[in-house]
Amino acid sequence: MSFSTSLVSAFKGGGGSRAPVARGFVSPWATAFDGGPLGRAPFDYAREVAEAYLANPVARRSVRIVAEGVGGAPGEAGGGAVLELPGVLNATNARALLMRTRLRERWQSDTLSLRIAALDQKVGPGSIVRVPDHPGLWQVTAWEWREIGIELDLQRHATATPVAAAADSGAAWDPPDRQAVGSLLRAFELPWDGTGPDGQPQRFAAVGAPDGRWAGAALYHLRDGALIPLGESGPDRAVGGRLLAPLAPSRGLRFEHAAGLHLRLDHEAPTFEPATTTALAEGANRLLVGEEIIQFARCEALGEGEWRLFGLLRGRGGTEHHALVGHSAGTPATALDERLWALPGNVEFDANSLLATIGHADDEPVYATLEGSGSTRRPLSPVHPRQRYPREGGLELSWTRRARGGWHWLNEVEQPLVEQDEIYEIGIGEPAKPERIWTSDQPRFHLSAASLADVAAAYPGQPVWVRQSGSYARSLPLLLTHLPSTI
């Protein structure tokens, strides 16, 4: 199908009606039925629409914004899928439409079949339900009555709405006056965000370039000295840069209204937008600084790619151990948005894995090591340690558990565990080489008076800690107390 034919189908609409086309398009229907000469040539709707489109720069720009946002320009070989729809959108609305479409497709790909013993009148197509051992919300799409029960088809319900960033239609890109520039690459693994399988690592590549002409780059995985192709990044540059000033340590317990960070972006074109507390709760304005996830509420442009971001939420997604250390000037910072390139889940990576990218202006491959390896499947460390010495002797220890993927606060129920079993390891001494270790299936542990006296005599002053043992890894340890020197 030619581009002109595709464009005609986009403008035709349904039900035999014709949707309004771009501004500046003069409808030929008036002259087609105005009683003109009988010898007039038959009216060709496809030709008229194509000619009007080519003569109208606003229409061309609007279609290009939608097409480039889904992976390619109209008629471009190998450009990917094109979203066709009747209508003319400004740049901001086109970007918001694409973000919502991508998010919906991502969630709808996660499906589930469930069999129940009896039909519940409250559960039918369109109902939003929770499923045991499967975190998040699910929507019933269909049901069928079988001999051994009711079979339900479900798909994951999208609860988060992306916050659309402002966009500018601008002028057409004119590359001949700009020099080609080399590629920039950063690769990292993020904590599980609650979408998709909880056991599949969420790894991303941030592929970008400084100011200049750049049309994307090819991505490779370096394995046994060979470059294994992974795909093409596309022309969208990831938003990244580096801190210009140190970022102080933080406990990450509260919203820090006055705190801020100063950074310079690799590319001057991207812009940041402020966000309300509601938008922050839905995941807006996330930034990966080092290996810490930070959210910001306010922003100030200083020019030449420099920004100050204020109103910080530190240590998001269980990265508070990085917030406690802080970050020095020069630490990389990357926006966590739709411009990241998701690495294939079937490719094996480890802490020493190297990724490479090669663009048109790159004389040699640009390499990057995978940061944060294992963070998707690592349980979050327990919090809020408590200790009590009862009158009858001994020591009672307790803590509060957390769960991976718990970005949204559940008001009426406890956060789902995610892991197959709730198991904790309580140890004495260094976590890497503990002197003594116990296990518990509850967020509490009791040492009798005799046991406390024994361990206090054997390991006086040694730390006592707890960590969660998950399905794939152990969490970082939480210090509970120190053993007394004397009883």
Summarize the structure.
The protein is built from eight helices and 24 strands. It has 487 residues and is α+β, with helices and mostly antiparallel strands. β11 (286-289) and β12 form a beta hairpin.
Task: Give a quick set of tags describing it.
single chain; 487 residues; alpha+beta; seven-stranded mixed sheet; six-stranded antiparallel barrel; 8 helices; 24 strands; globular; disordered N terminus
Structure notes:
The longest helix is centred in the N-terminal third of the chain and has 18 residues, at 91-108. The chain has helices at 3-12, 29-32, 45-54, 57-69, 91-108, 277-281, 320-323, 449-458; strands at 111-116, 128-131, 134-146, 149-156, 184-190, 202-208, 217-223, 226-232, 240-243, 256-265, 286-289, 292-303, 306-316, 332-335, 341-342, 354-359, 366-371, 383-388, 395-400, 423-430, 433-440, 444-447, 463-469, 478-482. The strands form five sheets. A seven-stranded mixed beta sheet has the order 8-7-16-17-5-6-15, with no helix packed on it. A six-stranded antiparallel β-barrel has the order 9-10-13-12-11-14. The chain has a four-stranded antiparallel beta sheet with strand order 1-4-3-2, with no helix packed on it. Helix 4 (57-69) runs parallel beside helix 5 (91-108). The N and C termini lie far apart (85 Å). With 487 residues, the chain is α+β, with helices and mostly antiparallel strands. The protein is globular and about 90 Å long. The chain has eight helices and 24 strands. Strand 3 and strand 4 (149-156) form a beta hairpin.
